[in-house]
Amino acid sequence: MTDATANHAPEARTRSSLLEQDERTRRRNASEKRFRTYGAVAICLAIAALVMLLTSVLGNGTSAFFQTYAKIEVTLDPEVLDPKGNRDPAEMSKVTTIGYGNLMKKAFPASLQAAGVSTEGIDDKEVGAMLSKEAPAQLRNRVLANPDMLGETIQFWALANGRIDGYLKGRVSMASAERDGNVSPEQLQLADRMRASDMLEKRFNWDFITFPDASELRPEAAGLGVAIVGSAYMMLIVLFLALPIGVAASIYLEEFAPQNRLTDLIEVNISNLAAVPSIVFGILGLAVFINYAGLPASAPIVGGLVLTLMTLPTIIISTRAALKAVPPSIRDAALGVGASKMQSVFHHVLPLALPGILTGTILGLAQALGETAPLLLIGMVAFVRDYPSWPVDGFFEPASALPVQVYNFTTRGDPAFVERASGAIIVLLIFLLCMNLLAIYLRRKFERRW
Amino acid sequence: MYDMNRVESAVTQDEIKISAHNVQVYYGEKQAIKDVNVEILDKTVTAFIGPSGCGKSTFLRCINRMNDTIPVARIEGEIRLDGEDIYDRRVDPVQLRARVGMVFQKPNPFPKSIFDNVAYGPRIHGLARNRAELDEIVEKSLRGAALWNEVKDRLQEPGTGLSGGQQQRLCIARAVATAPEVLLMDEPCSALDPIATGQVEELIEQLRADFSVVIVTHSMQQAARVSQKTAFFHLGNLVEYGETDDIFTKPKDSRTEAYISGRIG
């Protein structure tokens, strides 16, 4: 220290006891304590928001996984269901759900009587209306799958009407039934009697996951099957397009590209693309893939392409970060033993960057899975009841997507769709959770010390 | 300054392996190396000494064209390996680096097994026709790097799990495995403790039998112990180059004298 600075040095502190805090220390400790409190409050707020979200979704949505079914003894009359009598499913499929509906209309009151449940005060038509309009289709599918059942009397759990289901779940009450044109208090009383004799019960609803969407009039039959398949197809397309393109682009930009204005420009634009609102990608997809390239609307291929464009910047940015994080000493070591640039990248740098690349890719996919806005624009919002076929043909056939299905359910009038929207959100969240767990697992597995 | 266990210092070779002529290196606008002329002998240990930032590492990295990876670096003049200009347009740096191996300041084994670390060079250069030959090369290289006895029972364990000194010897084994003619060492002992340093120095003396070794070091004692020829760099200039004994006992340049007596640097 020179003399000049020594002259300006602060005077020596007056010696005080270590046992009591001086003013400065007190203030410093107080500000530290305040900061910790802010942090704790922020975390509490975040946790509270998460808990509220989960309670609301789980509270509304869990019931979507349970559905009310009514037990029916139905005799499968070969005269009606297979007029030609040759048990050929192709021939039998000519009998529509109306034929099955007529069978059930007779069978349902009959099985009630057989079980000793009184149907006094209600005509048979009203009793029949307690079943879902989807129930005949349910029976038909079952018969077509197994034609040998014809002629037998089978026990069949038929979907109950949405209002009856709502009554069992507490959504519909006697008071609301008075004002409701779709259900009468007498039907609800019958439902009570059926429950007492085990003819009506709530069961786990696999159909919610496997069934396609249903019309506004039959919420009890609405499922997520087509949406799950559509989302899965789109994820496949995104994975197979975005991962190779994104990783190749990142490796080129990070390791091989010359450092000049052009690469700077490309870098800036990639960062900007990551911030472009997703609906803009939807408009782009509509203009380029549907109007210009002539790909079919509502098809997973278009959705997949749009989501690929949206995911690419995320993957490129995370891959470049992962490549940058590989220590240069590894590159030097590889070059030092005479490896070419490409050998050093593919033998040493890429394996070390792999956990980061995979994590980025999966998080990008998860983001794409939850994306709704661009899909609305390219027609994935359409009402689709037919499953797309297996890939690759299925990529070009209409399908729905999970987040769009949630949106669809929420726009419908029947209150029964509220639980179905929440149920769809639960399925979506489970998918996202699985993808994040996979990301964590892969990172742990491939992580290596260096 | 002179250690008791210093090696034979007489220069026994006169065959020139590398000759540099009027080498200038620029990092952007800044000139890092000015007019360096030096002739490095075969089967000799040559030490580059000098204060930090004097350009000794930069010059070392010119010899196997590692500076090519730095976009702003520019090299003028010529460096000849066995009479061939290594900066000729027709020279592929990858081929050059197979003949001029390098060991870095910080041990940098690949995050692979010990075996794969050593076998990597021979594999990419196709030096082994089958697994038995590869095993032989790996064993020979590890023996050459005085590491075989310590690791022979755990060749499949990761190279990053070894101690610092072992890692550096593994890196030397890796460099030796590609059968280079010149071995460049950039402060190979700066991250090692005195015992590991002693082992590596012993190793350098053995390597002299087969290679031309060029070592950059901050430690003048080390230069005096292991080398036969010494070059003193200062501010990008090669100030003095001669037999190690002469440099340390009767330096011709006043700057050299100042450095070895601890007045600059």
UniProtKB/TrEMBL annotation, chain A:
The keyword Transmembrane helix applies. Residues 228-439 form the ABC transmembrane type-1 domain. The keyword Calcium does not apply. It is a multi-pass membrane protein. Residues 21-31 have a biased composition (Basic and acidic residues). Its main location: membrane. The chain crosses the membrane at residues 35-58, 232-253, 273-295, 301-323, 349-370, 421-442. It comes from the Bacteria. Keywords: Cell membrane, Membrane, Transmembrane, Transmembrane helix, Transport. It is found in: Cell inner membrane; Cell membrane. Residues 1-31 are annotated as: Disordered. InterPro entries: DUF3333, MetI-like, MetI-like_sf, Phosphate_PstA. SUPFAM superfamilies: MetI-like. NCBIfam families: 3a0107s02c. Belongs to the binding-protein-dependent transport system permease family. CysTW subfamily. This is Phosphate transport system permease protein PstA. It comes from Paracoccus onchidii. The gene is pstA.
TrEMBL record, chain B:
The keyword DNA damage does not apply. Keywords: ATP-binding, Nucleotide-binding, Phosphate transport, Transport. CDD domains: ABC_PstB_phosphate_transporter. PROSITE patterns: ABC_TRANSPORTER_1, ABC_TRANSPORTER_2. One of its GO terms (molecular function) is ATP binding. Residues 18-260 form the ABC transporter domain. InterPro entries: AAA+_ATPase, ABC_transporter-like_ATP-bd, ABC_transporter-like_CS, P-loop_NTPase, PstB-like. This is Phosphate ABC transporter ATP-binding protein PstB. It comes from Paracoccus onchidii.
